[in-house]
Design goal:
Pfam family, one: ABC_tran
Membrane topology: Peripheral membrane protein
GO molecular function, one term: ATP binding
Number of helices: 7
Organism: Terasakiispira papahanaumokuakeensis
Bound molecules: adenosine-5'-triphosphate
Strand order of the largest sheet: 6-7-8-3-9-10
CATH superfamily of one domain: P-loop containing nucleotide triphosphate hydrolases
GO biological process, one term: lipoprotein localization to outer membrane
Length: 233
């Protein structure tokens, strides 16, 4: 839990390029992205629609590999790990909050949040307890036994946030984390982000169109023409 004692680099991109070669024409989205995120640091990434934010986030999380360049998580290069090791790395070091939640519909909120702990081999009782503590933290203690279909969009979003945080990851990758939330709930989530960054040294990469959210982070980077540049707001 002493991640903040040593201010270490949790995530790094070195000259990252990405070209999609799936259609009739190649689409180059990233052209030399450089990024370093240290423990306890909160970085917002903004950019116009189609600028490549989701593409970058997927690569930071090891869901896709760069066409050129390198991504390091906790000092390890993702492309050099086999698929199984990459999965382990995702589970141990990263937390994800996707735009579309990806909750498992047949499981309760509590079971969804417990899932990454069960994958790690934590006992069912312990995983369930941690899940319920985390759900209470995001204001959903009363909804722990509900299935996703019985929750509102904002509540599902908060379940996804609880699931990303329950493993105490070194770095959390968030795609529009407050997209479906009212201002008060969004502010509550922002407070949690700050507490985790300062208390546990968790690093955050937050992709958003919400400039109010972006302004509350330590740094704002804009994805423009395939590169990240500092934005002063
Ligand atoms: N699998 C794919 N094959 C081909 N092109 C793709 C693929 N995925 C994304 N793209 C293209 O890459 C570009 C960047 O897409 P991406 O989803 O990363 O943008 P974004 O900045 O997240 O956009 P938004 O803010 O609208 O979510 C777009 O032009 C998109 O059409």
């Amino acid at each position: 839990m002493n991640k903040c004692v040593i201010n270490k680099e949790v995530l790094r991109c070195i000259d990252v390029h990405k070209t999609y070669q799936e259609g009739p024409e190649d689409v180059t989205v990233l052209q030399g992205v450089e990024l370093s995120v240290r423990s306890g640091e909160r970085v917002a990434i903004v950019g116009s629609s189609g600028s490549g934010k989701t593409t970058l986030l997927n690569m930071l999380g090891g869901l896709d590999l760069p066409s050129k360049g390198e991504i390091q998580v906790g000092g390890e290069t993702l492309a050099q790990l086999g698929e199984r090791k990459r999965d382990q790395m995702r589970n141990r070091k990263l937390g994800f909050v996707y735009q579309f939640h990806h909750l498992l519909s047949e499981f309760t909120a509590s079971e969804n949040v417990a899932m990454p702990l069960l994958i790690r081999g934590v006992s069912r009782t312990e995983a369930q307890q941690s899940a319920e503590t985390m759900l209470t933290r995001v204001g959903l203690g009363q909804r722990a036994q509900h299935k996703p279909a019985e929750l509102s969009g904002g509540e599902r979003q908060r379940v996804a946030i609880a699931r990303a945080l329950v493993t105490d990851p070194a770095c959390v990758l968030m795609d529009e984390p407050t997209g479906n939330l009212d201002q008060t709930t969004a502010q509550h989530i922002q407070q949690m982000i700050v507490e985790l960054a300062q208390g546990a040294g968790t690093g955050f990469v937050i992709v958003t169109h919400d400039l109010a959210l972006a302004r509350q982070q330590d740094r704002i980077l804009q994805l423009n023409q395939g590169r990240l540049e500092a934005l002063a707001l």
